[in-house]
Protein backbone atom coordinates (compact mmCIF):
# COMPACT_ATOMS: atom_id res chain seq x y z
CA UNK A 1 0.00 0.00 0.00
CA UNK A 2 1.42 3.37 -1.00
CA UNK A 3 1.67 6.23 1.47
CA UNK A 4 -1.25 8.63 1.49
CA UNK A 5 0.58 11.91 1.14
CA UNK A 6 -1.43 15.13 1.10
CA UNK A 7 -1.31 16.84 -2.34
CA UNK A 8 0.66 19.89 -1.17
CA UNK A 9 3.07 17.77 0.83
CA UNK A 10 3.54 15.50 -2.18
CA UNK A 11 4.70 18.48 -4.21
CA UNK A 12 7.03 19.64 -1.46
CA UNK A 13 8.18 16.44 0.18
CA UNK A 14 11.56 16.45 -1.56
CA UNK A 15 12.55 19.64 0.24
CA UNK A 16 13.80 19.43 3.80
CA UNK A 17 13.13 22.11 6.39
CA UNK A 18 16.54 22.76 7.83
CA UNK A 19 18.66 25.24 9.69
CA UNK A 20 22.29 25.70 10.46
CA UNK A 21 24.19 27.46 13.23
CA UNK A 22 27.79 28.63 13.27
CA UNK A 23 29.55 29.66 16.49
CA UNK A 24 32.61 31.86 16.34
CA UNK A 25 35.19 32.40 19.09
CA UNK A 26 34.31 35.03 21.64
CA UNK A 27 37.38 37.25 21.87
CA UNK A 28 35.93 40.36 23.47
CA UNK A 29 34.01 41.03 26.64
CA UNK A 30 30.84 39.46 25.33
CA UNK A 31 30.00 36.11 23.82
CA UNK A 32 29.85 36.29 20.03
CA UNK A 33 27.67 34.01 17.95
CA UNK A 34 26.35 34.11 14.43
CA UNK A 35 23.28 32.34 13.20
CA UNK A 36 22.87 31.35 9.56
CA UNK A 37 19.11 31.70 9.25
CA UNK A 38 16.80 29.18 7.68
CA UNK A 39 16.60 30.05 3.99
CA UNK A 40 13.61 32.19 3.10
CA UNK A 41 12.26 29.55 0.77
CA UNK A 42 12.25 26.88 3.46
CA UNK A 43 10.68 29.27 5.97
CA UNK A 44 7.93 29.83 3.40
CA UNK A 45 7.67 26.08 2.97
CA UNK A 46 7.13 25.58 6.68
CA UNK A 47 4.39 28.21 6.62
CA UNK A 48 2.68 26.56 3.64
CA UNK A 49 2.72 23.19 5.33
CA UNK A 50 1.31 24.70 8.49
CA UNK A 51 -1.54 26.41 6.68
CA UNK A 52 -2.28 23.37 4.47
CA UNK A 53 -2.94 21.11 7.45
CA UNK A 54 -3.73 22.73 10.76
CA UNK A 55 -3.47 19.35 12.46
CA UNK A 56 0.02 18.66 11.11
CA UNK A 57 1.72 20.49 13.99
CA UNK A 58 -0.46 20.27 17.11
CA UNK A 59 0.57 21.55 20.50
CA UNK A 60 1.16 17.99 21.73
CA UNK A 61 3.28 15.63 19.58
CA UNK A 62 4.18 12.10 20.56
CA UNK A 63 7.43 10.21 20.15
CA UNK A 64 7.44 7.54 17.43
CA UNK A 65 10.50 5.35 17.99
CA UNK A 66 9.34 2.69 15.51
CA UNK A 67 10.07 5.04 12.60
CA UNK A 68 13.63 5.55 13.85
CA UNK A 69 14.03 1.76 13.94
CA UNK A 70 12.87 1.52 10.33
CA UNK A 71 15.33 4.25 9.33
CA UNK A 72 18.21 2.32 10.86
CA UNK A 73 17.04 -0.88 9.17
CA UNK A 74 17.10 0.96 5.87
CA UNK A 75 20.61 2.29 6.52
CA UNK A 76 21.76 -1.29 7.23
CA UNK A 77 20.31 -2.64 3.95
CA UNK A 78 19.34 0.24 1.70
CA UNK A 79 19.17 -1.65 -1.57
CA UNK A 80 18.72 1.26 -3.97
CA UNK A 81 18.45 5.04 -3.65
CA UNK A 82 17.17 7.18 -6.51
CA UNK A 83 17.40 4.19 -8.80
CA UNK A 84 21.03 3.28 -8.13
CA UNK A 85 22.59 0.73 -5.74
CA UNK A 86 23.26 2.19 -2.29
CA UNK A 87 25.99 1.28 0.20
CA UNK A 88 25.02 0.34 3.78
CA UNK A 89 25.99 2.89 6.45
CA UNK A 90 26.24 2.69 10.26
CA UNK A 91 23.09 3.09 12.37
CA UNK A 92 22.09 6.42 13.87
CA UNK A 93 21.85 6.94 17.63
CA UNK A 94 18.18 7.33 18.57
CA UNK A 95 18.16 10.43 20.79
CA UNK A 96 15.11 11.31 22.89
CA UNK A 97 16.00 15.03 22.79
CA UNK A 98 15.51 15.06 19.01
CA UNK A 99 12.00 13.69 19.47
CA UNK A 100 10.89 16.18 22.10
CA UNK A 101 11.32 19.57 20.47
CA UNK A 102 8.32 21.31 18.95
CA UNK A 103 8.82 22.21 15.30
CA UNK A 104 6.59 24.99 13.98
CA UNK A 105 6.83 27.55 11.22
CA UNK A 106 10.08 29.48 11.58
CA UNK A 107 11.71 27.05 14.05
CA UNK A 108 15.51 27.28 14.10
CA UNK A 109 16.54 23.73 14.89
CA UNK A 110 20.03 24.25 16.31
CA UNK A 111 19.06 26.92 18.87
CA UNK A 112 15.95 24.90 19.80
CA UNK A 113 18.06 21.82 20.43
CA UNK A 114 20.66 23.78 22.37
CA UNK A 115 17.90 25.17 24.59
CA UNK A 116 16.75 21.58 25.13
CA UNK A 117 20.24 20.68 26.35
CA UNK A 118 21.36 18.92 23.16
CA UNK A 119 23.86 21.19 21.30
CA UNK A 120 24.55 20.16 17.72
CA UNK A 121 26.91 21.09 14.91
CA UNK A 122 24.17 20.51 12.33
CA UNK A 123 20.50 19.49 12.30
CA UNK A 124 17.74 19.20 9.75
CA UNK A 125 14.09 18.14 9.79
CA UNK A 126 12.27 16.12 7.14
CA UNK A 127 8.45 16.31 6.98
CA UNK A 128 5.95 13.75 5.68
CA UNK A 129 2.21 14.36 5.70
CA UNK A 130 -0.64 11.87 5.32
CA UNK A 131 1.13 8.61 6.23
CA UNK A 132 -1.09 6.51 8.47
CA UNK A 133 1.73 4.66 10.24
CA UNK A 134 5.49 4.38 10.49
CA UNK A 135 5.74 1.94 7.56
CA UNK A 136 3.94 4.34 5.22
CA UNK A 137 6.03 7.25 6.48
CA UNK A 138 9.19 5.21 5.86
CA UNK A 139 8.13 4.45 2.30
CA UNK A 140 7.59 8.16 1.62
CA UNK A 141 10.93 8.98 3.20
CA UNK A 142 12.70 6.42 1.01
CA UNK A 143 11.08 7.91 -2.08
CA UNK A 144 11.80 11.52 -1.24
CA UNK A 145 14.78 11.64 1.13
CA UNK A 146 16.82 8.47 0.62
CA UNK A 147 20.07 10.40 0.15
CA UNK A 148 19.61 12.24 3.44
CA UNK A 149 18.62 9.08 5.30
CA UNK A 150 21.88 7.50 4.12
CA UNK A 151 24.02 10.52 4.92
CA UNK A 152 27.36 9.87 6.59
CA UNK A 153 27.50 13.43 7.97
CA UNK A 154 24.78 12.69 10.53
CA UNK A 155 24.98 10.55 13.65
CA UNK A 156 21.64 10.83 15.47
CA UNK A 157 17.94 10.67 14.71
CA UNK A 158 14.67 11.48 16.42
CA UNK A 159 11.12 11.08 15.12
CA UNK A 160 7.96 12.96 15.99
CA UNK A 161 4.36 12.04 15.15
CA UNK A 162 2.33 15.24 14.86
CA UNK A 163 -1.31 14.72 13.90
CA UNK A 164 -1.25 13.19 10.40
CA UNK A 165 2.32 14.37 9.89
CA UNK A 166 5.74 12.99 10.75
CA UNK A 167 8.97 14.85 11.43
CA UNK A 168 12.34 13.16 11.26
CA UNK A 169 15.14 15.15 12.89
CA UNK A 170 18.66 14.25 11.74
CA UNK A 171 21.62 15.70 13.62
CA UNK A 172 25.34 15.71 14.15
CA UNK A 173 25.92 16.33 17.87
CA UNK A 174 28.44 18.89 19.01
CA UNK A 175 31.80 17.39 19.86
CA UNK A 176 32.18 17.26 23.64
CA UNK A 177 35.83 16.22 23.91
CA UNK A 178 37.57 18.36 26.51
CA UNK A 179 41.25 19.28 26.64
CA UNK A 180 43.18 17.55 29.41
CA UNK A 181 43.36 20.03 32.33
CA UNK A 182 46.91 18.98 33.20
CA UNK A 183 48.15 19.94 29.73
CA UNK A 184 46.34 23.26 29.36
CA UNK A 185 49.03 25.39 30.98
CA UNK A 186 51.89 24.09 28.85
CA UNK A 187 49.83 24.11 25.65
CA UNK A 188 48.69 27.69 26.19
CA UNK A 189 52.16 28.84 27.21
CA UNK A 190 53.69 27.27 24.11
CA UNK A 191 51.21 29.03 21.81
CA UNK A 192 51.63 32.36 23.60
CA UNK A 193 55.43 32.24 23.60
CA UNK A 194 55.46 31.27 19.92
CA UNK A 195 53.46 34.43 19.23
CA UNK A 196 55.73 36.60 21.41
CA UNK A 197 58.86 35.28 19.66
CA UNK A 198 58.27 37.42 16.56
CA UNK A 199 57.15 41.02 15.93
CA UNK A 200 53.38 41.30 15.56
CA UNK A 201 50.79 43.83 14.45
CA UNK A 202 47.88 44.05 16.91
CA UNK A 203 45.28 46.20 15.23
CA UNK A 204 47.00 49.53 14.60
CA UNK A 205 49.83 48.89 17.07
CA UNK A 206 53.13 47.28 16.14
CA UNK A 207 54.84 45.18 18.82
CA UNK A 208 58.42 43.99 18.87
CA UNK A 209 59.19 40.42 19.84
CA UNK A 210 58.91 39.91 23.59
CA UNK A 211 60.70 37.54 25.99
CA UNK A 212 58.93 34.27 26.78
CA UNK A 213 56.52 34.10 29.71
CA UNK A 214 56.65 31.51 32.46
CA UNK A 215 53.76 29.83 34.24
CA UNK A 216 52.79 30.83 37.77
CA UNK A 217 50.59 28.64 39.97
CA UNK A 218 48.93 31.55 41.75
CA UNK A 219 47.96 33.11 38.42
CA UNK A 220 46.68 29.70 37.31
CA UNK A 221 44.45 29.68 40.38
CA UNK A 222 43.17 33.20 39.68
CA UNK A 223 42.43 32.31 36.06
CA UNK A 224 40.68 29.06 36.93
CA UNK A 225 38.51 30.69 39.59
CA UNK A 226 37.21 33.24 37.10
CA UNK A 227 36.55 30.59 34.42
CA UNK A 228 34.64 28.53 36.97
CA UNK A 229 32.59 31.58 37.94
CA UNK A 230 31.70 32.40 34.32
CA UNK A 231 30.81 28.77 33.55
CA UNK A 232 28.65 28.42 36.65
CA UNK A 233 26.56 31.54 36.11
CA UNK A 234 26.91 31.74 32.28
CA UNK A 235 28.16 35.29 32.64
CA UNK A 236 30.86 36.47 30.23
CA UNK A 237 32.71 39.50 31.59
CA UNK A 238 36.01 40.54 33.15
CA UNK A 239 34.10 41.93 36.14
CA UNK A 240 32.17 39.55 38.35
CA UNK A 241 28.76 40.53 39.66
CA UNK A 242 30.26 41.22 43.07
CA UNK A 243 32.51 43.84 41.46
CA UNK A 244 35.79 41.92 41.59
CA UNK A 245 38.27 42.25 38.73
CA UNK A 246 41.44 40.41 37.77
CA UNK A 247 43.68 42.31 40.21
CA UNK A 248 41.41 41.35 43.13
CA UNK A 249 41.39 37.71 42.10
CA UNK A 250 45.18 37.58 41.73
CA UNK A 251 45.67 39.07 45.21
CA UNK A 252 43.26 36.54 46.70
CA UNK A 253 45.29 33.78 45.06
CA UNK A 254 48.45 35.13 46.71
CA UNK A 255 50.05 37.00 43.80
CA UNK A 256 51.28 40.53 44.62
CA UNK A 257 51.38 42.17 41.23
CA UNK A 258 52.77 45.42 39.85
CA UNK A 259 51.00 45.24 36.48
CA UNK A 260 48.33 42.80 35.41
CA UNK A 261 46.07 41.96 32.47
CA UNK A 262 43.43 39.40 31.59
CA UNK A 263 42.08 37.73 28.45
CA UNK A 264 38.84 35.72 28.41
CA UNK A 265 37.14 33.64 25.73
CA UNK A 266 34.16 31.32 25.36
CA UNK A 267 33.42 28.44 23.02
CA UNK A 268 36.90 27.37 21.92
CA UNK A 269 37.64 23.67 22.34
CA UNK A 270 41.47 23.79 22.60
CA UNK A 271 44.15 26.03 24.06
CA UNK A 272 45.45 26.73 20.56
CA UNK A 273 42.00 27.93 19.44
CA UNK A 274 41.72 30.19 22.48
CA UNK A 275 45.14 31.77 21.88
CA UNK A 276 44.43 32.26 18.18
CA UNK A 277 41.15 33.98 19.04
CA UNK A 278 42.99 36.36 21.36
CA UNK A 279 45.65 37.08 18.74
CA UNK A 280 42.92 37.96 16.23
CA UNK A 281 41.58 40.64 18.61
CA UNK A 282 43.73 43.82 18.85
CA UNK A 283 43.24 44.38 22.60
CA UNK A 284 43.83 40.76 23.59
CA UNK A 285 46.76 40.51 21.17
CA UNK A 286 48.30 43.58 22.82
CA UNK A 287 48.09 41.86 26.21
CA UNK A 288 49.89 38.80 24.87
CA UNK A 289 52.64 40.88 23.21
CA UNK A 290 53.15 43.24 26.16
CA UNK A 291 56.79 42.88 27.23
CA UNK A 292 55.93 44.22 30.70
CA UNK A 293 54.32 40.88 31.54
CA UNK A 294 56.68 38.11 32.62
CA UNK A 295 54.33 35.45 34.02
CA UNK A 296 50.94 34.00 33.14
CA UNK A 297 48.28 31.64 34.34
CA UNK A 298 45.42 29.99 32.47
CA UNK A 299 42.35 27.91 33.23
CA UNK A 300 39.12 26.77 31.66
CA UNK A 301 35.81 25.54 33.02
CA UNK A 302 32.74 23.97 31.42
CA UNK A 303 29.12 24.97 31.83
CA UNK A 304 27.53 21.60 32.73
CA UNK A 305 24.19 22.28 31.04
CA UNK A 306 25.49 23.47 27.68
CA UNK A 307 29.03 22.09 27.55
CA UNK A 308 30.41 25.55 26.74
CA UNK A 309 34.05 26.18 27.65
CA UNK A 310 35.05 29.43 29.36
CA UNK A 311 38.72 30.42 29.22
CA UNK A 312 40.72 32.90 31.30
CA UNK A 313 44.35 33.96 30.87
CA UNK A 314 46.02 36.20 33.46
CA UNK A 315 49.27 37.99 32.59
CA UNK A 316 51.27 39.83 35.22
CA UNK A 317 54.51 41.03 36.71
TrEMBL record:
Entry keyword annotation includes Transmembrane helix: yes
Pfam families reported in the protein's UniProt record: CAP
Protein name: CAP domain-containing protein
Transmembrane segments: 21-39
Residue ranges annotated for the SCP domain, each copy included: 189-314
Domain of life: Bacteria
Key words, A-Z: Membrane, Transmembrane, Transmembrane helix
SUPFAM superfamilies named in the record: PR-1-like
Amino acid sequence: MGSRVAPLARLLKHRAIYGKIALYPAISTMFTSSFINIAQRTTLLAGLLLSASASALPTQARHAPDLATLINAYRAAPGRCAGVPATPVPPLAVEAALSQIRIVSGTFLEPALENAGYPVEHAEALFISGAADAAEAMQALREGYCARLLGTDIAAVGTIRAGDGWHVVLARPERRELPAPESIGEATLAAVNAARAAPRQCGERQFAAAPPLRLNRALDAAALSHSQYMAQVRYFSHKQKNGSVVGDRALRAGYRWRTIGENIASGQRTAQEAVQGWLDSPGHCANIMNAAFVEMGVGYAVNPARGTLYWTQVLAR
